[in-house]
Design brief:
- The protein is an alpha/beta fold.
- It has one domain: Rossmann fold (3-Layer(aba) Sandwich), CATH 3.40.50.720.
- The chain is built from seven helices and seven strands; from the N terminus they run E-H-E-H-E-H-E-H-E-H-E-H-H-E.
- Belongs to the short-chain dehydrogenases/reductases (SDR) family.
- Pfam families: adh_short_C2.
- It comes from Chitinophaga cymbidii.
């Protein structure tokens, strides 16, 4: 039996990058997987095909994580479609880098709505369905520990909020058999932060290893945390950053 057979997972922002890799890995481990996407319908359906190719069921739901009602509806739809929910991966996030004085309140609100409120809303909605063995896995950033370059104030602040949310919620739901954890990626080769991008060489100077990580590195950790072997891991953050913050 695969590690996550007979489980159902929802991955927010699952149409690209780290989210897509997580969705595919959970499917390979035997879970039925729902993903949300904001605008990339074509990419979302490519991920859906990959999920179904693993011999499990999948659905792609258009839901912007900044829209609380759409996100709640996505959780409910997943649970209805698959007769329950076992794993929520709060992956959807936005990042913008520039001096703090250049941020508009609208930009600030959008970052906080996606990166913080979206995680709160999704987790709150999922708790109606999660039971013994339930998992909430949040995706943060290595910049909650150290910020190695300027311009990341809003992004770092929003992701740091997930540390408190993860720890407090883990304490709240632990007796129900639900774990809550946080994975902090560092430089990962994605379309948003390519290993051949304009800032890649600078980021490499921060690494202890040779090069950027791959999306599958994060997906592997999420799959582990979602499984039975991680039942005693909760309220913690696990950093996968190639030694950026040593």
């Amino acid at each position: 039996m695969k590690n996550l057979s007979n489980k159902t997972a929802l991955v927010t922002g699952g149409s690209r990058g780290i989210g897509a890799a997580i969705a595919k890995r959970l499917a390979k481990e035997g879970a039925n997987v729902a993903i949300t996407y904001s605008a990339s319908k074509e990419k979302a359906h490519e991920v859906l095909k990959a999920i179904e190719a693993c011999g499990v069921k999948g659905i792609a739901i258009q839901a912007d994580s900044a829209d609380a009602s759409a996100l709640k509806a996505a959780v409910d739809q997943t649970a209805k479609e698959f007769n329950g929910l076992n794993i929520l991966v709060n992956n959807a996030g936005v990042a913008s880098y520039k001096p703090m004085e250049e941020f508009s309140l609208e930009e600030y609100d959008h970052a906080m709505n996606v990166n913080v409120k979206g995680v709160f809303v999704g987790s709150q909605a999922a708790l109606k369905y999660l039971g013994e063995g339930g998992r909430i896995i949040n995706i943060g950033t290595c910049m909650v520990d150290k910020v190695a370059f300027p311009g990341a104030t809003v992004y770092s602040m929003s992701k740091t909020a997930l540390v408190g949310l993860t720890k407090a919620l883990a304490r709240e739901v632990g007796k129900k058999g639900i774990t809550v954890n946080l994975v902090h990626p560092g430089p990962i080769n994605t379309d948003m932060n390519p290993a051949d991008g304009p800032s890649a060489d600078f980021q490499r100077t921060l690494l202890a290893v040779d090069d950027f990580g791959e999306t599958e590195d994060i997906a592997a950790m999420v799959a582990f945390l979602a499984g039975e072997q991680a039942k005693n891991i909760t309220g913690t953050g696990i950093t996968i950053d190639g030694g950026t913050n040593i």
